[in-house]
Write a structure and sequence with these properties.
The complex is a heterodimer of chains A (658) and B (458). Chain A is built from 25 helices and seven strands. By secondary structure, chain A is mainly α. Chain A has a three-stranded antiparallel sheet. Chain A has a two-stranded antiparallel sheet with strand order 4-5. In chain A, strands 6-7 form a two-stranded antiparallel ribbon. Chain B is of the alpha/beta class and 458 residues long. The longest helix of chain B has 25 residues. Chain B is globular, with a radius of gyration of 23 Å. The chains are: A mainly alpha (658), B alpha/beta (458). Chains A and B meet through helix 9, helix 19, helix 20, helix 23 and helix 24 of A and helix 7 and helix 8 of B.
Chain lengths: 658, 458
């Protein structure tokens, strides 16, 4: 291990051990030399290409130039059926609608982007980043329904809320002038954060560590989601590769030390004030009722008095408009101090001071019991304002200023990160292969000029995600077929040059939804309470299946759904026997196969006609002669239609996108 | 995620290239195996190939079993210096251990009267009396014991083992967790965090013994093996058509075809593995009755079939958490574990499995020598007892010690990180080199800590 230069106590050799923890891939840069992702954004000039016929838009020039440099040519365009299927799964997470078979491409793209199912698909991508769960820890400070946040995200994608606004709402909607009350649901990004159990019988030195872990969790999710930076690394010492110092860490962590997870109404104060008053009254009445029940000796007229109180509670509940309006899991402004319980008592108290914010001291080696100098809250020093100093985060907790800094001073980085995430979902891999690591420790972009050009124009478009989809979907790059030529298989096996479209497997949600769509059972109702995924008769989209942070549904778990305990930038693709047991024996799959076979049984014709029909339904094509033969042989040798349908619903063709 | 954990053998990038990115199917180590890169161990030859962890959730008190403390009787009721360490709750004076000790085996290992049958294996036991942890609260201590961190954000020991060593049996998961009910913190204790999801523990509630109820989708609701076989043949033929139309080579598509076949076999293999009724009556009798006995027997059946890591939680919730009536409760608990543990050790030995199976016993922390609620004992992270047996450890050894009262580990102190480093070492893994790159850091099970307790190695 090379010696760490000593500049402040957090860099001293005493901390070299801690430093081992955060090993960069590359040697640390000089502090002056900011990594590529921090540089200002500019539209790029188009590179020269030899084949001037292939490009359809700007994206293609950048891709083709690299291919030509490598001596490769792009794959031929995929056929219309493949493109329709790809488009539909990319944007909606659903199989293509055969009624649209002859619709002109540009109209088809517009219709897909206008579909409410678009937000369901792309909202889910965001929920992976936000470590969304319907059921969080039982001791969380909020019991409000998480789905308000999920539905808000879906709606934000559907109305193409500009990405910069999208960021502001999620971190600071309550402080943002002129927002709608229902936008408070956006605060679920913070309000649904994992919270760690704090046993308050323990001394504050121990509880303080747990609290510091929670602050690190917030730093991690905000850093990786919005900036592609691993801010958590700077908790114990200056970041070894990213331009983030330990001082930066505590300057930002102070923001999270100044908020408390809490419920928030999603209606205006005028509507909410009477509800709040009514709820308080009900709470007092309930206490009175409990007191009555416990009173010893019991009053003689106990029954009557209980009934009277009960009646009063009911009356308040039914007479107060919006009494049952759900609140959203959110945050409020309150500074947290971890203190001894006081007096001779053993233990700790968590003191939240409402409306107050606090600056944190540096924690030597990340240990809150070893405080250093207090650092005023401010944004990262690597992103100064015009006057050269980082933006102070001192209005309240500083959340709103933090959110603004993310999309103003740090706009080049934030834009590159989100553009890369959208690219990743369209191509199965990002231009940067480490989508939440944009520092020097991450991978370099495969096409830096393309990423910059797209990101610069994305910002100029008003941070419109739908604009970005159109650019990508209209490119020749996206329209390529998925079969790699021998040369591109040899020299671009990972597809990073984009010499062909990588073949992708449907994720758990798209597969389950596609089965329901193929059998005609899909219930397209949107939003609201989650349902239990282990019930094979439920036919709503998988997005609405209940996600428990501590007990993931079995079907999601084996099919690579991410652990909602932390930010997840990509889905791992595994092929395990447990997944295949679900294909072979899962009641959900069997129920779909049964339904499909029953539907086919009502149609006219013999086995052969039905085989053709099922292929059209599932794959939007006719079966080949060999496929017909295999199917026919299976059925004539006693195989049931149900088991045949099950094979097709779990086949590689059904599960993969070309 | 591009740093290699095994630089000496094969570079991860090379492996990725060689297998066309289709590692999802196999996992990294399997790719190494296929490349001929993986011999007996990972970093050096292993002493143990698999682990059975008997988890006494709630936390047992060492001096009840293996760490005799006569001073507790002598100073009963008093609170001498050294007996006033901070724990979770307010505590009173010292409380004596009423159980008599004997010296057992050739080694003369002290074992109390609570474990007469286990004591017959004294010469196999490597008792660790000087363990300590960082937090006197169940959750954080459970996390630390399972994953080396007090918060649920890093992979568990079993997930690391699965990631590092792969599976000895492709038809069964490599990490299984048995519990008749649910331990506190439940699935967070065996999750894979940022490691690929196939490495997380597969939880099995074995309070019902039908294999079908233990493994999801293990059999078809209307089983018909020939029909399913024909289905699989059709699926394979159609998938091959699909593959041929796409150039004939694609590791991902091929991987899925292979996994389907594995699943088909797993239905029988797992049903067999989990079916205790296949066990001879004589063997079942040696283990005795009850959930823990069944858990131990299942653990043997699974280890025998190559499952890398089997954790057996003693019971639902935290049964060893004896805040009141400690002595009375401990007597019952001891009676419940003695026979199954003795049977497990004997059974493994008979089958020649004990030499390369590491058995670990212990809780997430220990208990206080001082009382709580008059007759209970509070949590104690400062010093506690675990033991290991088999898999390359020295039997008949009593390693390290606590102070006169059994409160704090004083000699040859062994932090949980040290325990983890030692376990990985026995498995042929250098705990500093089994790493995974995530969120800008190279994570490892032992964080920046971990000393191997070399004295306990056979």
């Amino acid at each position: 291990m090379e010696p760490v230069p000593t500049r402040n106590p957090f860099r001293g050799s005493a901390f070299a051990l801690a430093a081992l923890w955060c090993l960069p891939l590359l040697p640390a840069e000089e502090p002056e030399a900011l990594p590529w992702s921090f540089h200002p954004l500019h539209e790029q000039s188009l590179p020269e290409v030899k084949d001037s016929h292939w490009p359809r838009n700007r994206i293609d020039y950048f891709v083709l130039a690299e291919l030509e440099k490598a001596g490769l040519s792009p794959a031929p365009e995929a056929d219309a059926r493949t493109l329709r299927r790809r488009l539909s799964f990319d944007l909606l997470g659903l199989p293509p609608d055969e009624a649209e078979r002859d619709t002109e491409w540009s109209v088809l793209v517009d219709r897909h982007l206008a579909s409410p199912h678009y937000g369901e698909r792309w909202g889910r991508h965001w929920l992976d980043l936000a470590r969304y769960a319907d059921v969080t820890e039982s001791w969380s400070d909020t019991k409000s329904p998480a789905w308000l946040y999920r539905d808000w995200v879906v709606d934000a994608f559907n109305r193409d809320l500009p990405y910069d606004r999208f960021v502001l709402h999620q971190l600071a909607n309550d402080l943002l002038p002129g927002t709608r009350h229902e936008d408070n649901a956006a605060l679920g990004f913070l309000g649904l954060s994992p919270s760690y159990w704090k046993e308050l019988q323990l001394p504050p030195e121990i509880i303080g560590v747990t609290v510091a872990e929670e602050w690190e969790e917030r730093m991690d999710v905000v850093g990786r989601t919005f900036l592609g930076l691993t801010l958590g690394c700077a908790r114990c010492h200056d970041h070894k590769s990213d331009p983030v110092s330990a001082e930066d860490y505590y300057a930002l962590a102070g923001v999270f030390a100044s908020v408390q997870i809490a419920d928030r109404p999603v209606v205006g104060e005028a509507d909410w004030a009477p509800v709040r008053a009514a709820r308080e009254k009900v709470k007092a009445l309930e206490a009175e009722r409990d007191g009555l029940k416990k009173a010893k000796p019991a009053p003689a007229d106990l029954k009557d008095r209980l009934a009277a109180v009960g009646k009063e509670i009911e009356a308040i509940r039914s007479d107060t408009p919006k009494y049952h309006t759900a609140t959203a899991p959110a945050v409020v402004e309150a500074a947290l101090f971890v203190k001894p319980k006081g007096g001779e008592e053993h233990g700790t108290k968590l003191e939240y001071v409402e409306g107050m914010a606090r600056d944190l001291p540096m924690h030597r080696r990340g240990d809150p019991n070893s405080p250093g100098e207090v650092v005023p809250r401010r944004f990262l020093a690597a992103f100064p304002r015009a006057d050269g100093s980082p933006r102070p985060l001192d209005q309240g907790s500083g959340r709103l200023e933090l959110a603004r800094a993310l999309v103003e001073e740090a706009a080049p980085l934030s834009a590159r990160v989100v553009v890369n995430r959208v690219w990743l979902q369209h191509f199965g891999r990002g231009l940067v292969a480490t989508p939440s690591e944009f520092g020097p420790a991450g991978e370099m972009p495969s096409h830096p000029a393309l990423l910059d050009d797209l990101a610069a124009r994305f910002v100029a478009s008003g941070w419109s995600i739908k604009w970005l989809h159109r650019e990508i979907l209209n490119s020749a790059t996206w329209r390529q077929g998925s079969s790699a030529s021998p040369e591109s298989a040899a020299r671009d096996a990972q597809g990073q040059l984009h010499s062909h479209m990588p073949r992708r497997r449907l994720d758990a949600e798209a597969w389950r939804d596609a089965m329901l769509a193929a059998t005609g059972e899909l219930d397209t109702a949107m939003g609201g309470e989650p349902f239990a995924l282990d019930d094979p008769t439920t036919t709503r989209r998988t997005l609405y299946g209940r996600v428990k942070r501590r007990e993931l549904d079995e079907m999601l778990r084996v099919n690579d759904f991410p652990d909602p305990v932390a930010h997840s930038p990509t889905r791992t693709e595994t092929a395990t026997p447990l997944q295949q047991l679900f294909s072979l024996n899962g009641p959900f799959v069997i129920a779909r196969a049964k339904h499909l076979s029953e539907t086919l049984a009502t149609t006219e014709g013999g086995d052969m006609e039905r085989i053709v029909r099922i292929y059209e339904r599932l794959f939007q094509r006719e079966p080949t002669a060999a496929e017909c033969e295999l199917g026919f042989a299976f059925l004539s040798e006693g195989g049931s239609w149900e088991r045949y349908a099950q094979v097709l619903l779990t086949s590689n063709e059904f599960l993969h996108l070309d | 995620m591009s740093r290699t954990a095994f630089p000496s053998l094969i570079d991860r990038r090379t492996a990725l290239k060689r297998f066309g990115g289709g590692l999802g199917t196999l996992g990294f180590v399997s790719a190494l195996e296929a490349a001929g890169g993986l011999g007996g161990g990972v970093h050096f030859p292993p002493r143990a190939k698999r682990v059975i962890h008997l988890f006494m959730n709630g936390g047992p008190f060492g001096p009840d079993f293996f760490d005799p403390k006569p001073a507790l009787t002598k100073y009963q009721g008093e609170r001498p210096p050294g007996a006033d360490l901070r724990t979770e709750r307010p505590t009173g004076g010292l409380m004596a251990v009423p159980f008599a000790y004997g010296n057992h085996g050739k080694s003369g290992l002290p074992v109390s009267e609570l474990l007469p049958l286990t004591a017959r294996h004294a010469d196999d036991l490597c008792v660790l009396n000087s363990c300590y942890t960082d937090n006197p609260n169940h959750g954080p201590a459970l996390f630390l014991m399972n994953s080396g961190s007090m918060t649920p954000k890093v992979p568990s020991l079993g997930a690391w083992m699965s990631y590092g060593l792969g599976s000895e049996n492709r038809n069964l998961p490599s990490y299984l967790v048995l519990c008749p009910g649910r331990p506190v913190r439940f699935s967070e204790l065996w999750h894979s965090a940022f490691l690929p999801p196939q490495h997380q523990g597969v939880y099995i509630n074995h309070s019902k013994l039908e294999p079908d109820r233990m493994i999801p989708w293990l059999s078809h609701p209307e089983p018909d093996v020939p029909a399913q076989r024909r289905q699989l043949d059709l699926a394979a033929a159609l998938n091959r058509e699909h593959l041929a139309a796409r150039g004939g080579t694609d590791t991902v598509l091929e991987g899925r075809i292979a996994a389907m076949e594995t699943a088909f076999r797993m239905q029988f293999e797992a049903s067999e593995a989990f079916d205790l009724s296949k066990e001879p009556q004589a063997i079942r009798e040696t283990y005795g009755e009850g959930h823990f006995a069944n858990g131990c027997l299942l653990a043997r059946r699974l280890s025998e079939r190559g499952v890398r890591f089997v954790q057996v939680y003693y019971g639902n919730g935290q049964p060893w958490d004896t805040h009141s009536k400690h002595t009375e409760q401990t007597r019952k608990l001891a009676q419940d574990i003695d026979r199954p543990i003795a049977a497990l050790l004997e059974d493994l030995k008979q089958r020649g499995l004990l030499e390369d199976t590491l058995v670990i016993w212990g809780g997430e922390f220990g208990r206080t020598p001082v009382t709580e609620n008059g007759d209970g004992r509070d949590h104690n992270p400062h010093g506690f007892t675990m033991w290991m047996a088999g898999g390359g450890v020295r039997g008949g050894l009593s390693y390290g010690s606590t102070d006169d009262f059994g409160f704090k580990a004083v000699e040859k102190r062994m932090h949980v990180h040290d325990l983890h480093a030692t376990i990985l070492h026995l498995l042929g893994i250098d705990h500093e080199r089994l790493t995974f790159r995530h969120a800008g850091r190279d994570f490892r099970l032992t964080d920046v800590h971990g000393k191997i307790a070399r004295e306990i190695l056979a």
